């Protein structure tokens, strides 16, 4: 998840790019967890064709044949719906739309440049329409306006945290549960963007069943604390951490999963002034929790059902966002600050050894997450480049190479393994249009893209786990996706489970909804957490 979540969830993300003119060998030790039929066994010979990097967003031009009159930029411009030209739209199709649903939309704004090119700005916005008398929302706040009957489709919402108002007027329905149209956005009374949008009703994808490939839901347990975002499984127990959400404090929830088909709630922990807990990991009798306030929290789980607070490891203003353990090292990633490294040979008494910073733009946001493999650390450096470091000697950490992103896309999480003698990184971003990249990082000085896998452009990828030639991906609204990466040049989906349901309690319109975390601890089961449904346990494929 991104940092700091409270700020970024409320942001209309704009990723700008200038357009001129116009997945053999079994992996080494599991150092860290840091819709096509199964094609069958495949042995990759290590050859590939280098792929050009085009970024997360693939521009296909305007979404709809409508427009917005931006000549008079009055303070109420985004609430004046007659400004939209819908003369070439399809009111009959709009009239047939269901009067409910949770939608995610991509917005596209095109501005001419002095050199004759075009600047394309892409954003994301979600909204929810209710037919049961419940609140209609945008940014999880009540809509200012809604008119979705009689061939008209318009919604106007405001994010009070950022003073951003957006008007969206529908024009066409190119496919079931997809709406295209025009939008205008204003901030503090000033028109900031106007262009077209494409909105998908995220719970529905034509022709796709609830699950496939034999991925079976064995059990489900609600998490009462906040919004569950990560899970770690050890000692026959699942430790779920949550963020504050919808008036509920976050914290830690513990389940006995010795019988995965019947998890038993054991306890929950929430601190009144510190419960924005985003990451969790365990090492022998210690549980490490990433806290946005107190840094890394250390709990004693020698009695697994009863975690006991031991101490916290301060990390400064931003607190810790994610954590991982590799061997006898604990890594804590801190936004805008760096990666804190601790010796955990005595798990309940970590000793700080280093603070690692990544070379590059200091405004990139710092490390979001890392993956440790061999003597190298693979850093997902937020809005900066994906970076490989030699951490053999913590007193002499050496940068080995970087993979830049051309469109300011957000680097979120990765998993690294060995295939046909080559070291490959499966790297995922975050925010709309983010997708899976397969990178050859054998020579970090020249990282090469050799494969990719995409879902719908209106959704976001999140965390992923590599187990042999199976990649388990927590893909927010898209649920849990399992990819066969035996041929890493062509990752192939072999199983999925759609967890997102509009009827789930506390289900909102955020881009960050659905499956957040996944773990595959090697006990024959897959553990994931959904932002509304809580702990979900599946069979391992």
Automatic annotation (TrEMBL):
Pfam short name (any one): LVIVD
Alphabetized UniProt keyword annotations: Signal
Signal sequence, renumbered to the chain: 1-21
SUPFAM superfamilies reported for this sequence: Quinoprotein alcohol dehydrogenase-like (SSF50998)
Designated name of the protein: Choice-of-anchor B family protein
